[in-house]
C-alpha cells in the first residue's frame, strides 16, 4: 500500500483538486450555509464562523497514513474557483479501505464536475495508494449522489433502514462501493 501519502494536487480535464485556502471562505460559506445543499448532510446549514473553522481544519489535513486520516480538498473549475469539496478518509489500513464523499455548489451540479473529481480520487486510491475498496455512505433519498455512485461504477451494497437519528427523524443509510479490480476493469 502507498501509505503514508502527502497531499499533492490532482488535475483532470475540467477540474483540479487542491488544498482549501483562506480566500475560499466566501465560496465555501455559500455552499455550506445553503439549506438545500445541507438537506442530506449530517449537519445543518453552517454559520460563517463554523465554515471558517472547517476551512482551517480541512486545509491542515494533508497526510494519509492510518485509519481516521482524511483529506478534503477543494474541487476547482478550470478558472480556479472553488465549486465544491471532496472527502476522502482512510477507514482501515489492514483492509485497505477508504470512504469517499462530495459536496458541490448548486450552480456546479449536473455538469459532471463531481464525477471527474471523484474519479481523480478513485484513480489515486486504486493506483498510487494501492487500496482495495472505496465506499460512499449516503442518504438514499439523495438521488443525485446515488446516480453519481452508479456512474462511477459503484455497486449498491447495503441499505440500512432507520439507521440513524437524523435531523429529528429516523433515516436510512445507503452504502455504495467499488473494488480496485472493478475500477481497473
From TrEMBL:
Residues 15-182 form the N-acetyltransferase domain. Gene3D superfamilies: 3.40.630.30. InterPro entries: Acyl_CoA_acyltransferase, GNAT_dom, Ribosomal_N-acetyltransferase. It comes from the Bacteria. This is GNAT family protein. Pfam families: Acetyltransf_3. Transmembrane segments: none annotated. It comes from Microbacterium lacus.
